[in-house]
Amino acid sequence: MTDAVPNTAALTAPTAAASTPAASASTTSASHADEPATAGPITDPAAHRVLTGDRPTGPLHLGHYFGTLRNRVLLQDQGVEMFVLVADYQVITDRDIADRLAEHTENLVLDYLAAGLDPERATIFAHSAVPALNQLLLPFLSLVSVAELSRNPTVKDEIAHSSQAAVNGLMFTYPVHQAADILFCKADLVPVGQDQLPHLEVARTVARRFNERYPHTDGSAVFPRPRALLSEAPMLLGTDGGKMSKSRGNAVALGATEDETARIIRGARTDADRHITYDPANRPEVSGLVLLAALCQDRAPEAVAEEIGGGGAAALKRTVTESVNEHFRPLRARRAELAADRGHLRKVLHDGAERANAIADATLAEVREVMGAI
Ligand code: TRP
């Protein structure tokens, strides 16, 4: 298959917010400034290396599945080299301890495998298990100013929503850590949501400045400048009409049972109009449910809404529950089988870390060499 990747078109220009750090870079050169921060459709899968990741803070939900997970599987199946990182150190950016870390990490791997990521083709690993990756953070931190770090809009937002009394240093610097996540394996494509674009911009800035400051003796660059692969997938709302989130209790987990799914959907917020339509701007709650059913049925949301018509919220919720349970039945069956073998999940992480460590060691050696370290 050499076609463009479905659902991963990324033809939009980077947002103004995302380009702010680069614009302020004193060393910006004209040739680099013109390069788009987002990638278009992929025409040559073998020419790319993709890195993505998640924090192990709880089970993945349907928003993750339609937002990124199924795209990762598509990319893998197209022959793009995949690295999928469990960002366990990132958990302690906005909380004191990483609660039930081993369990959440294993369950993340479980969700990945159930969704179709294949550990033979995709390298799945936890970043805490790759020391050389973390060591890249030191030279990288020297390439960004404190003012740039404090301007990052996503970090600002996370700080605003944090329940912690004080912002810790890891929270403040984690976009640079994320640059290390991406650059240790020289990934050139990063599938992300819109909110992660400022972080990708940090990774691009770090790569550019490192290459300018520390070229190889033949003038070649150590790092590629990674680009974002924006998902076309519409954002799914939670059952309360807010952002779908692990922590808000408004999401259906991938691994939920059929009864749990029915219960959560039954509790979803709707509105007083019995006639079901797809109108995201004016009826976000109802439209979110229609969209979920449509994604599961692989149909247009308008068609799903029309079919339900005057059936009201009860008919809508019945349709959504049936659609979700039917669509995810095979995935959930696979997940249940895999869940019985925790040893296998550990082995996937162990093998992934071994591959990641070999690559990180080589990159760190290259970094130390161009810096002139003995
Ligand atoms: N910040 C991402 C999240 O919260 C997880 C992540 C860590 C990541 N490192 C990454 C994503 C590198 C993409 C690339 O979900």
Give the N-terminus to C-terminus distance in angstroms. Answer: 46 Å
Main sheet: strands, sense, barrel? 3 strands, parallel
What is the residue-mean pLDDT, rounded to a whole number? 89
Number of extended strands: 5
Helix/strand order? HHEHEHEHHHHHEHEHHHHH
Query: What is the spatial order of strands in the main beta sheet?
Result: 1-2-3
User: Any idea what the radius of gyration is?
Assistant: 21 Å
* Global geometry: globular
Ligands present? tryptophan
What amount of the residues lies in strands? Answer: 5-15%
Structural class: mainly alpha
H/I helix tally: 15
User: Low-confidence stretches at least 5 residues in length (pLDDT < 50)?
Assistant: 1-32
Summarize the amount of helix as a percent range: 40-55%
Protein described:
The protein has 15 helices and 5 strands. By secondary structure, it is mainly alpha-helical. The strands form 2 sheets. The protein has a 3-stranded parallel sheet. Helix 10 (197-213) links the parallel strand 4 and strand 5. Helix 4 packs across helix 14, helix 4 (101-115) packs across helix 15 and helix 12 packs across helix 13. The longest helix is centred in the last third of the chain and has 30 residues, at 342-371. It is globular, with a radius of gyration of 21 Å. Residues 1-32 have low confidence and may be disordered. The structure holds tryptophan. Residues 51-55, 85, 87, 90, 178, 181-182, 190, 192 line the site of tryptophan (TRP).
